[in-house]
Every structure is written in structure tokens, then in C-alpha cells.
Amino acid sequence: MIGIATIKEIAKLAGVSIATVSRTLNNSPAVSEKTKQKVRKVIAQTDYSPNVLGRNLRLNQTRTVLVILQTLANAFFSKVIRGMERIANERGYKLLICMTNAKEESERNYLDMLLNRQVDGIIFAGSFINETNILDLEKRFPMVTCTGYLQHQTMPYVSIDDYQAAYDAICVLLGKGYRNIAMLSVANGFLSTALREKGYLDALKDYGISIDPSMMIYGDYGFTSGAAAISALLDQGKLPDAVFAISDNMAAGVLQTCLDRGIQIPQELGIIGFDNNNISRYMRPQLSTVGQPRAELGEVAMNLLIDQIEGKDIPQRKVILPHEIILRDSTR
Amino acid sequence: MIGIATIKEIAKLAGVSIATVSRTLNNSPAVSEKTKQKVRKVIAQTDYSPNVLGRNLRLNQTRTVLVILQTLANAFFSKVIRGMERIANERGYKLLICMTNAKEESERNYLDMLLNRQVDGIIFAGSFINETNILDLEKRFPMVTCTGYLQHQTMPYVSIDDYQAAYDAICVLLGKGYRNIAMLSVANGFLSTALREKGYLDALKDYGISIDPSMMIYGDYGFTSGAAAISALLDQGKLPDAVFAISDNMAAGVLQTCLDRGIQIPQELGIIGFDNNNISRYMRPQLSTVGQPRAELGEVAMNLLIDQIEGKDIPQRKVILPHEIILRDSTR
DNA sequence: TTGTATGCGTTATCAA
DNA sequence: TTGATAACGCATACAA
What's the pLDDT score for residue A272? Predict the structure, then answer.
């Protein structure tokens, strides 16, 4: 009853060979129903559960996939992961999550799980840290990036068109009459960030507005950093008439800071965020934002990964999903 | 260079036995420095990485622990998990996270990783679903609950004193002159919830205030549910002069709904939340709340777990950490 | 339909 | 100091 038996003990108790027990466990048709019953009875009595380590070692697969996150604190990814989980369940895989806290050593550590065949594949949710590690691994193991990717990576990815999303957001602001638009970005070197910055610059340029470099400010995706960045700008006596932030949290920081300083939103300052996180609906006025199809991003990523694991053809290795400009009350 | 070698191939290349390679890998003193160098050179050249499956099978351990979460969407746990991770790293364990979405089947699924010896131990962050499963397992495997627990569980846990925390929060409100205090709870059957409700009731009773059952309202920890619950109450024509919510998200929902309806916070209605999540500082007015030592909760839980795994004595199996009443602007 | 025996990649015991 | 070899728990080719 207590203590975990092995296949050997079950075999002895049931009076059959371990091969027969193994076949029963895998429901092989090559075992008579009678024998199966006998074995199953013993299994039930003894509360036996097969050691997956042994099985994995033998089969060289785990039916487990790992999602690597930089931080759990980003609400954006919780819905993405829900999408991944749905597909993983459907296709018979377990989903494990780990976080690196943006530490390279930690990333390397979890990457090892792939080398060690503790998981069958990995999805990067967001960007990764050490490019060389990954570019080496991606040739040999099933890997997918979801939402962040490198310029020359060969592994499949799924993302929105970050350039176009930013371009569209700025066009909306321009269309509403805002002319002196600041961008609140993150100095992280991610391609997605670079693309959003380029979208911002190109939209202004295409509209014939000259770029003021001091209007490009930086945070770390967080509320506090957004608040600090806009404060610094205002303290310099510079007042843009709109801010495009690449995360809703930063946009919310801008919003509260401006309200605290008595700046009217959206009359004096328009704000548009990114991600359509919950916080964008909690704020007053509610934040306009750029929405991403979060669940679908996760679903596509997981399907790409499992297809790879199972050796299926992946015709479409680079998937771009549509974004959405969501207008609420922080833009006039 | 490409393809993952095995210990056998390394042995052949280095011209030694697999035993020597294994010893080198584990840095055994019983290998001459010269031989070690030779083996290490081959390992470096071939980019070999030991198969952990084989090692785990042999050692019957994984040096990996699993944290079971109901949802990733709860910001509260992200800091708790940071604490866990710190300790896990320190003590040489990998930390994996999974989520059940409150589905029993999914919980069972991940619990199996323990039976299958894919992980050495499990921490429940928050409450679990199927008690009988767990009460059976906790006798045989290293397990710890962090923040949620059952009345008669034998496995170690770490938590704040939910009863006292709620009692204290209500006393603060009473001290500020609020008399008609509603409680916004969750109908989930968790012991932590029951204790918070009892704390609320006892504090009122001890103060000589009679209980109005209609002032006990329910949500699901989320912002929207808090907004809906207070709306329903107000629509009935009932206006409490304070609300004690057992999550900051619900408290924030109450706050915004009341502001939208033109109710003055904190003059007409005081609000106190629970958890000291980021959102409590993002709102205006900022939310008063009950703070928990999140990182420490995670650290203690992880230490309890690893002590168990390593067969160390655990003198203190039930750890209660101090809470903190944080007063901001949503209470007068 | 069942059993025997081998191997998956390690570590550890025992000899040499 | 090193090597041969037996486990660890399982799945499967081959024999019976």
C-alpha cells in the first residue's frame, strides 16, 4: 500500500513477467484481457505508478515542454500561456514554466533541460538573453520564440508586426491632431523594441514631422519607470501633447503622474499604451492601447513547437498575427 | 561537434573507461589530475552534457522542485515565487512552475510528477483542489503549502495569520470611525478565506456592532468581480461606510466603481484591500491594504521543502509570518 | 499470448 | 588510480 512499487514487484505479485506488466501499462493488444485484468488488479491494490524516469530514458522523450519567461510579473504573458496550455493539453503534453529573471546563468540552466532531455522542447516567451547559446541550440532542438525574436534566427516564431503596430498607433494620434508625440520605450536591445521605435519614427517622418530626440524616453516596462520617465521630461520643461508607451504599465505610470501634476488627460496630453493589459481598463480615464491576440499567440507557438517535436512539416515558420488599436479615454 | 555524445563515446575518445569519465564529471578525488584534464578536453571539444535522465534514474532524485499555482494571473505570487527561487538556487535546486487553472484533472496531472519522480518535491502556492489526493500523497512525498492550507493537514505550511490580519484591518477601520463595514470575500471554501471572515465578524462583535448579513458580499479576487459586487450592493440602496476586501484587485474594483458613481473616497466610503499588490499603489486615491511578507513566505516554504527532501529535521513545521496594515489614502 | 534478455545513460561497488 | 560490471525502471526485439 505504501511505498512505490516497481514493475518488477508488480510482475511478481501478479505472477507474470515484467514484459507483460509493461504491455498492460501501455495497453498493448498483445496481452489477453484476462491477464490484463489480473495485472491491473495488482496495480490498483499496490497503488503503483510507473517511474517516468525509466520510461523517458528508454523512449528518449518526456512529453513535456518548457516555457522560459524572464519574469512572472508580466500580466501580458499569463494569457499567452493560457493559450499554450490549451494546446499542450489537447496534444498530450505537460507544460512547465520557468523564469530567468533576465539572468544568463539561469537561462543557461533551464536550457540544459533540453540538452538533458528532461523536456522535449522549449518556447521562449518574450526575448532571451544569450543569443549565442540559443543560436547554437536551435539547430539541434525543438524551439520556438513567442513574441520576441532575433533578426537572423532560424527557429520558428510567432509575433505581431511590431513595426506596423507602432506605426498605426502614431497615425491614430496624428489623426486626432496630436503633433508633439513622445515615445516611451525600453533600452533592452530587443528586436521588437527596435521595430516599434522605427514605426514611431517612420510615422512621424511620413507625416512630415521632424524628430525631436529628446522626445524619446526610456523605462523598463513598469509603472514606476513610466512615472519617472515622464516626470524627468516634464521637469525639463518639455511637455509633449501625446505619449506612446510600449507597455500599458508604463502608460499607466504616465497617466497617474500627469493627473497628479494637474495635466488634463486627454485634452492636454493623449496617451496610448501597448498590450491591452487589465490595468489599461482599470485606470481612469481608461487607457487607449495596442492589443495583441494573446491566447492565439500562445496557441500558435505551442502548435509550432509540438509539430517540430513530432517531426511534422512546418510550412509556416514565421507567423505574424494581427494587432488591434483599441481607443478608450486617454486619447481625445 | 553536433549531436549529443554519451559518456561511452567520451570514454572512447579519451581512451579511458566510462567510470573514469563519470568520476571526472563528478570531480571525484580518486582521479588523477592528468586524467581529468584529458577527459575534460574531450568533453569540451565534443560539447558533451551528461544525460540527466540517466543520472536521475540512478540516483533516484532530480534536484528539481515544482510549484503548483492555480493561475499565473495573480501578481501576489510572483514575488512569493521570487523568494522561492532565491532559496532553490542557493541550495542547488531547479524551480519549475505549473498552473492548474483550478482544474482537478490538471492538478492530478502535475501531482503525478511527484509519483513519477520527475520532481523531488512540491509546493502548493495558494490552495489546492482535491483534498483527498493531497492528504494521501503528503505522507509519502515532500510537500509544503504556502499561503493556503487545510485544517488537518500534516504537511508543513507557511502563512500569515489570516484571522488576526482581518481582525486588525477591521479594528483600524473601527478606530477611524467607520461603523457600517462591508466585507468583500470569495466563496471558495479556502481556510484562509474562512479565517478572514471570522476575523471580520469577531472584530465587529467585540466592538459591539451587530452583524448585517447583507454586508457580506462575494467576488472572485478579480477587479471586475469587486466592481460587480459593490454595484449590486449599491443598487439595492445599501451604502456601507467602509469595505474590507480580501484582495487588492477587488478593492480596486470597488474604488473605481464608487468614484465612477460619484462616491467620495475616503470621506463617504473607506476601502481597505489585501496583499499590497502593485495595483494598490497605482490607484488614486492609493489603497490601504494588508501586506504580507511575500518574498519571505516563498523563502520559508522552499526551505521547509528542501529540508524535507534532504531528510533534515523540521522543528518548526507550521510557520506563521507577520502581516502589516498599510494605511494609504483610501481610508480617512 | 507470454517470457527472456538487452539497452537507454548514468553512478557506484568491487577488483585489479 | 583505474576499469569492468552491476544496478536504476522501463520498453521492446526476439524466442517460445
Answer: 98
User: Could you check whether the bond before residue B285 is cis, i.e. omega within 30 degrees of 0?
Assistant: yes
Closest nucleotide to residue A20 (Cα to C1')? Answer: C2
The dihedral sign for the CA sequence B216, B219, B221, B222 = negative
Asked if B64-159+294-319 and B162-292 have one fold, the answer is yes
Closest chain A residue to the Cα of B259, Cα to Cα: A284
The CATH number corresponding to A162-292 among 3.40.50.300, 3.40.50.2300, 3.90.1170.50, 1.20.272.10 equals 3.40.50.2300
Residue–nucleotide distance: A9 CA to C5 C1' (Å): 18
**Percent over 90 (pLDDT), chain A:** 68
In strand C, which positions have an atom below 7 A from any protein CB? Answer: 1-5, 7-13
Any CB–CB contact under 8 A between A115 and chain B? yes
pLDDT value of residue B236:
95
Cell 447583507 belongs to: B214
pTM: 0.88
Task: Judge contact between A295 and A79, C-beta under 8 A.
Answer: yes
Query: Domain ranges in chain B?
Result: 7-59, 64-159+294-319, 162-292
Q: Which residue is nearest to nucleotide C7 (CA to C1')?
A: A58
Q: Which of A122, A20, B285 is nearest to A7 (CA)?
A: A20
d(CA A175, nearest CA chain B) in Å: 29
Specify whether the CB–CB gap between A233 and A241 falls below 8 A.
no
Q: How many other C-beta atoms are found inside a 10 Å radius of the C-beta of residue B254?
A: 32
* Widest CA span in chain B: 86
The whole-chain average pLDDT of chain A stands at 92
CA distance A168 to A145: 24
Q: How far is CA A49 from the centre of its chain?
A: 33
Residue A295 forms contact with B (CB below 8 Å): no
- Asked whether the predicted pLDDT for residue A126 surpasses 70, the reply is yes
Q: CA torsion sign, A201 to A207 to A213 to A217?
A: negative
A73 vs B78: CB contact, 8 Å cut-off? yes
Q: Does B118 lie at the interface with A, CB-CB under 8 angstroms?
A: yes
Separation of A286 CA and D10 C1' (Å): 57
In A, minimum Cα distance to B110 occurs at A94
The CATH code that applies to domain A64-159+294-319 is 3.40.50.2300
The CATH architecture that domain A7-59 belongs to is Orthogonal Bundle (1.10)
- Put simply, the answer to whether A53 touches B51 (Cβ < 8 Å) is no
Per 3-state DSSP, chain B is made up of helix, strand and coil in percentages (nearest 5) of: 45, 15, 35
For the segment A26-54, what is each residue's pLDDT rounded down to a tens digit? 888 889 999 999 999 998 888 888 888 88
Is residue A3 pLDDT above 50, yes or no?
A: no
Predicted confidence (pLDDT) per residue in A132-154, tens digit:
777 778 888 899 999 987 777 78
Contacts for B130-134: CB closer than 8 Å, 24+ residues apart: B130/B104, B133/B107, B133/B108
